[in-house]
Amino acid sequence: FFFGSTMSQSARGFCSHPLGTRWVPYEYFESGAYKTMSKGQYNTGSDHRLYFMKDRIRKIDEGVMVVRYELPYDVWCLLCGEHITMGIRFNAEKRQDGEFHSTPIYSFEMKCPFCDNRFVMKTDPENCTYAVVSGVRAKTKTWDASDDPNAVSLRSPEEREKMAADPMFRLEKQAEDEARLQIHPNAA
Q1: The pTM is what?
Q2: Are strands 118-124 and 83-84 parallel, antiparallel or unpaired?
Q3: Range 42-71 average pLDDT
C-alpha cells in the first residue's frame, strides 16, 4: 500500500512518516514487529531537546565536544608508523585552547585508526592552517616552479625596470618566452 498525505490518520494506518508518504505493508503491523514508542521514552531528563546529540555532548561539562574532523594533509603515526591520508574523517574531541587576537584556537584530539595512539592537531589562525601538536608527523609538500614546464615565471622588479628602460633586453626576453611556448605549447 502507498499511504499518501491526503489520507486521514486512520486510513494511513500506523505510518509514522511526517508527510504520510511512506509505503508500509499491513503484514508488518500484523506480525507484531512494529512496536509503538511513546514520546515519554525520549523526553526524559533535562536534555531531552538535545537527545540526538547525546553522544556528542557527553563531556560538555569538561569543555569537550565531539565533532567530525577531516585531516587537512597527510600524516604518519609516530607509534605504528602507518600513513594516514588527507581527507580521512575522525570523531575528534574539540577543545578551545586559547585565542589569537579575538579568534578562538581549537585543538582536536583523535585516535589513530591503526593503533591506540592518540594525536592532537590545533588550528593556527595566524598562518591560516592547522598545526600538528603531538602523536603524528605531517607530510611536508614542497613545490619548485623550475621543475614544472607549464609554470609561469614572474619577473623581479629589477628585471621589469630593466625591460622598461632597455628595448634590446625586452626583445631578448620576449624571444625566450616565445621559444618556451614553442617547446611547451600548452603553457599559454
Answers
A1: 0.53
A2: unpaired
A3: 74
- Rounded to an integer, what distance in angstroms lies between the CA atom of residue 119 and that of residue 137? 10
**Calpha distance 72→141 (Å, rounded):** 12
How would you classify the pairing of strands 129-134 and 136-138?
Answer: unpaired
- Smallest Cα–Cα separation from 20: which of 33, 8, 3, 37? 3
pLDDT at 155 over 70: yes
Q: Give percent helix, percent strand, percent coil of the chain, each to the nearest 5.
A: 25, 25, 50
Contact 64, 93 (CB under 8 A): yes
Q: Kindly state the helix (H) or strand (E) to which residue 136 belongs, with its residue range.
A: strand 136-138
* In the predicted structure, residue 75 carries a pLDDT above the cut 60: yes
